Records
---
Amino acid sequence: KRVEELRQRFVDNRLTQKHSSDELLRLQCEGRRQSGPFPVDKAGMGSSGAVPAGTVEGALRNGISFYEGLQADDGHWPGDYGGPMFLMPGMVIALYTCGVLDSTLSKEHRAEMVRYLRNHQNEDGGYGLHIEGTSTMFGTALTYVTLRLLGVSPDDAQMEAARAWIHARGGAHNITSWGKFWLAVLGVHSWDGLNPMPPEMWLLPYSGWTGVGWLHPGRFWCHCRMVYLPMSYVYGRRGTCRPSALTEALRQELYPMPYDSIDWNKARNMCAKEDLYYPHPLIQDVLWWSLYRFGEPLLLGSRLRKRALAECMKHIHYEASYFIICRALSWRAVLADCMKHIHYEDENTRYVDIGPVNKVLNMLSCWFEDPDSEAFKRHLPRLFDYLWVAEDGMKMQGYNGSQLWDTSFAVQAIISTGLGSEFAGCLKRAHDYVEQSQVIEEAQAPLSEYYRHISKGAWPFSSRDHGWPISDCSSEGLKAALALAQMDPNLVGAAIPAERLYDCVNVILSYQNWDGGWATYENKRSFEALEVLNPSETFGEIIVDYNHVECSSACITALTAFGKQFPEHRAAEIARALKRGVSYIKSIQRPDGSWYGNWAVCFTYGTWFGCEALAAVGEGWANSKHAKAACAFLLSKQRADGGWGESYLSCQDKEESGDWPQQHISGVFNRNCMITYANYRNIFPVWALGMYRTKVLQHK
Ligand code: LAN
């Protein structure tokens, strides 16, 4: 009933776009505040109302009023953060393996999930890596399996089409490495058909002086390391689902040949051409072959393996090999001790975990460790943080939401218009969310043993419960807090205490890398060259936490804004950081004047951040060749209708409701996978017009 209610709400949402503004106002005033798409803030609407569009101010008032209506009670803007298609299969396979699929997901959840998957089948019968992608084996085989586990019959027409797609490409063993892993967990692909992921890599010394220390997973990008940690745990013990009639049927359905006739050794390196974004280099073939041939037969079931599995669960590094040997010999004692390892991540994120992939993998590891454990039970309720129902059905999101990120942008956008005091109720609630989501405590000590960067003072992408600090989220959170601090506290609430802002500045400064740039969650701990070890086939740039124009620019603009309000605090360090940061930004500008955007589509987004950084230190068209080149790039991309790229601003419906229509998917990660940012279409036009109003119109 609840799901149906939610679905209806989305249908309503689309319908109301066709209402006139009077009708819209009436609908809003009916008081759908809790659940409706147009909840109304009496104070905000009272003062702003639906002003006819046509003028910049009118469009802004409409845009903000509409958006205010979508704000949740705690001050953030809920939004769809779906897009990737490879996430829900992991959850469904894990739940099925743990024997709790039907008891965890209600009938309605399962029905909505099936609807979502049905909606995103491509015309050729396959499924993409993400909702707008062309078909891949990764998307198709995993979705097929998921639909079967959710109760869809193999005789269903859509299933037949998907199966035909898989068979036409030789069978499901042509899936990418992460896909092979999930199929092996389910028992419908042999573990012998996987390249090794030895948990022993966690036993390497961490120190760079040892040479091999550079290969230690603690140096990898946190998302990569947190995924391979439980993956290697499950692989290391070959954790497999108990066979059932369904898994037996799947063994027959997924392959055009008899299951037992498959050459699994050959399958290790087989990958459908549709999936190959990052083909692995020869060095990996040699490495995986030697581990497969000589390493695994020795390690599987050995004491060292038990020791390594325990290590995974604890996630502790030992500087000296002396320790490894001593510990390996007393593995029983360590085993008990080492349960804390995967648990560290679980406990420090209150079982949300850093992302959707390690969330379900950690849950599965806890179950393999002890199906009756408290840890496993605690995992289940926090699966729902990742689920979202929209007009296309229920999906698993790319994160537990983008709450703080969207809220801090929305705050800056609304304040930029100069109309902030008219929307005080909305800003006050947003202020609460910004205040409530700042991370105010470090993760459990000792941080270095768990490879964690400091967090106190940072802002996360989503919520305080999640709590992983991120450079640009901290910066956007800080900028929002600073902008709100300049407004009347009687209107928007008391400013966040200066000490807490100092903590944030401390995190931002600590994030700057030796070359002046900023990466995402941590410092750059390794070399780009290590990307040769990326075995995923699907994703690019996952091994190292690289610098990005977005992160670097956000840190620069935040430090500049902070310096204006607190000129005395760590002034010399900030000035130095800015100087190094700006020269880094200039060094990565492309010859055509643009910057490559890593986290949304694409050059326009990247160039926005590049320009912001230059503008923050006073460089613009008139005095900087870098700014001039960037403007020339943007101007050269303007379209005949006046807009840019996919998200042109002047669309028909804006006069009606203040909404802007959702167009193509706008976010991206690891070069190849797209992700939805549902709030951008409301925030960015308001921000752009707002700045136009305050910086251009008001100065005329
Ligand atoms: C995100 C979401 C937020 C994003 C920004 C803050 C926008 C960006 O500026 C920095 C990088 C960051 C934090 C980011 C990194 C990659 C994430 C975590 C994601 C795109 C959300 C989902 C994605 C994650 C890697 C998905 C799981 C897939 C794997 C390959 C592990």
---
Amino acid sequence: MESRGTKREAGKIEVAEPRNKLPRPAPSLPIDPALYSGPFPFYRRPSELGCFSLDAQRQYHGDARALRYYSPPPTNGQSPNFDLRDGYPDRYQPRDEEVQERLDHLLRWLLEHRGQLEGGPGWLAGAIVTWRGHLTKLLTTPYERQEGWQLAASRFRGTLYLSEVETPAARVQRLTRPPLLRELMYMGYKFEQYMCADKPGVSPDPSGEVNTNVAFCSVLRSRLGNHPLLFSGEVDCTDPQAPSTQPPTCYVELKTSKEMHSPGQWKSFYRHKLLKWWAQSFLPGVPNVVAGFRNPEGFVCSLKTFPTMEMFEYVRNDRDGWNPSVCMNFCAAFLSFAQNTVVQDDPRLVYLFSWEPGGPVTVSEHRDAPHAFLPPWPPGPHQSAWPQSGPVPPPAD
Ligand code: GDP
Ligand code: MG
């Protein structure tokens, strides 16, 4: 084995460089799948730390009141016949997408539970806090050819916080969303209404309104490689009949997709849609995704359950398929890149990580508005900046 002394000799010229020329963290991160195709990294089995709900007015509640119960139609030989366009647009209350909530609801949960967090003293200081959806975007980045992203990152009391920023292109797309796409978004939520009930053991009631302000969010703990994670994700429903009633293994993710008729259509579905479904449900440990396939008239006539842990099998032998190791290794590499970039502990300092298809992840530095997203924390008893400036606590019941 080469001695340290020999290595020092070999590196003599580098060592002689002035201190300010010492190697710095790379200013950009490549995304090529070939760079990340090593063995699957360590990923801790996700455990639920808690949950919260958002009501029809998008108000926060520190409980499971918005959790719904999986209630599929009886399997008596008949196929379902769900009209996903029913109620559109008259019984649709879409969430106001102009309101940028950033990490606010998750921060409120954290503020109310940081004293009782497991993992020992200092666990939170070493963790990364974000939404599940942001991690999903990181997982699929090596295979994404359409949509870029921006993630804002700040460090406070050790913890690295990651919050998505809507890209200018995404904003234009949202503001010019074609009517048919708006209706398609409604149809996804309508499917949930046909498949879920407000109480266990009762049938769904699709006669009411579809209000996308309502959400049930699970807060989870995991670890990717050496990165402890605390993240929250919206959960569609829990299955009262699941083999284990312990979250997150009782949770079910619901999706709709176009009915497929040719092997080519299925292949494309496995390559593109299943990647997104896998990434979203693997992260929080949701074991099953139930798909409703809609015909051109907007009716769901067939259902199929895709176990999350079996999704990769559909592309394992496909040269143009995706690989879970690539997704997870890239995510781990990004988290290391972010940890090494955001060195200063300062909630007013924001590093903006930007990615567009075809290029590497780049980074820029910002201070205060408009990118700063952490409130002064913790608010003292007489300090009013937060949570009052974020989500306002609901009146006592
Ligand atoms: P997902 O995995 O992309 O569905 O996102 P998460 O489950 O991580 O959701 C995080 C939070 O963002 C929840 O409060 C959701 O209600 C909210 N959310 C989900 N989708 C969207 C979206 O498309 N836009 C915005 N602004 N918020 C969303
Ligand atoms: Mg869903």
